[in-house]
Automatic annotation (TrEMBL):
Residues 21-259 form the ABC transporter domain. Signal peptide: none annotated. Keywords: ATP-binding, Cell inner membrane, Cell membrane, Membrane, Nucleotide-binding, Transport. It comes from Polynucleobacter yangtzensis. The lineage of its organism: Bacteria, Pseudomonadati, Pseudomonadota, Betaproteobacteria, Burkholderiales. One of its GO terms (molecular function) is ATP binding. InterPro entries: AAA+_ATPase, ABC_transporter-like_ATP-bd, ABC_transporter-like_CS, P-loop_NTPase. It comes from the Bacteria. This is ABC transporter ATP-binding protein. The keyword Nucleotide-binding applies.
Length: 284
């Protein structure tokens, strides 16, 4: 798939809007001398697209979100947001950039002591000086977009997990961010809520003209809504393409994911000592 040759994937990339996030030759480990998490990683996220980042557990998907959010800095290479190198931003520039990134973290936790309305209002109160009247209208618009305008006065304990995820979605888009990052947005959802959430991510992205970056394990739902998919393996891109291209792929790495096969190029074991070393036995 990713053999360095120009192919049809480049065409689908060119057809999309301008690049919003660009990751160029990024190397990263959490501490000097520790295991390399990302090595020579290259990715692009374009305006108007829903792009999925998939791969085995611990392959570095969340780490990519952290680098884009500026929580961590690449050892080498560049992470550009709207053309600006995140590692070179001043504190104020980074704060401004983060306001332009909506984030929905794993399980999209809501503030349990705030109502649905106040949860969505939170980023607006934090980052803007809007009048109470305008803020009210904006929150209702966001709640309307996720179908929960009528639930505005409920507390998080009074709504289902699927509804809570939609409130978290409304909160993530409260400031109309050009980039929305989702970390496992489908985790723990029942099949119906999962389908609704996936559709919402697509529809909200279209309505906002935004870029959505989706870290997920759910192949079926993701392939139904994504424009482009990156599979990460060994700290770099193992495969990439549109859902259609990847579905047709015979690449063993891609097939392992799509067919949910336990055996394949992706190892089951986290790298470490051998069994023999840990148990003090000699291999037979
Ligand atoms: N703060 C940290 N300090 C040190 N190592 C970390 C830290 N965060 C993550 N790691 C390690 O970095 C690797 C990549 O983690 P990351 O969370 O990016 O993976 P992931 O692909 O999102 O995994 P999953 O799908 O299981 O959520 C893992 O091996 C993890 O143990």
């Amino acid at each position: 798939m990713n053999n360095g040759q120009p192919n049809s994937l480049d065409v689908s990339k060119q057809a999309a809007g301008e690049v919003v996030v660009s990751i160029k030759d990024v190397n990263f480990s959490y501490a000097p001398g520790e295991r390399q998490i990302l090595s020579g990683l290259n990715m692009e996220f374009r305006r108007g697209q829903v792009v999925a980042v998939m791969g085995g557990s611990g392959c570095g998907k969340t780490t990519i979100l952290r680098l884009i959010g500026g929580q961590y800095t690449a050892e080498s290479g560049q992470v550009l947001f709207e053309g600006q190198d995140i590692s070179k931003m001043s504190g104020a520039e980074l704060m401004a950039a983060r306001r332009r990134m909506g984030m929905l973290f794993q399980f999209g936790a809501l503030f349990t002591d705030l109502s649905v309305f106040e949860n969505v209002a939170f980023p607006l109160r934090e980052h803007t000086n809007l009048s109470e009247e305008l803020l009210h209208s904006l929150v209702l618009m966001k709640l309307n977009a996720v179908g929960l305008r009528g639930a505005r006065d409920l507390m998080p304990s009074q709504i289902s997990g699927g509804m809570a995820r939609r409130v978290a979605l409304a909160r993530a888009i409260a400031l109309d961010p050009p980039l929305i990052m989702y970390d496992e947005p489908f985790a723990g959802l029942d099949p119906i809520s999962l389908g609704i959430t996936a559709r919402l991510i697509r529809d909200l992205n279209n309505a906002l003209g935004a870029t959505s970056l989706l870290v997920t394990h759910d192949v079926e739902e993701t392939f139904a809504i994504a424009d482009y998919v990156y599979f990460i393996a060994n700290g770099r891109i193992g495969a990439e393409g549109t859902p259609e291209e990847l579905s047709r792929s015979t690449d063993p790495f891609v097939r392992q994911f799509l067919d949910a096969a336990p055996d394949g190029p992706v190892p089951f074991h986290y790298p470490g000592k051998t069994l023999e070393e840990d148990f003090g036995v000699r291999s037979l």
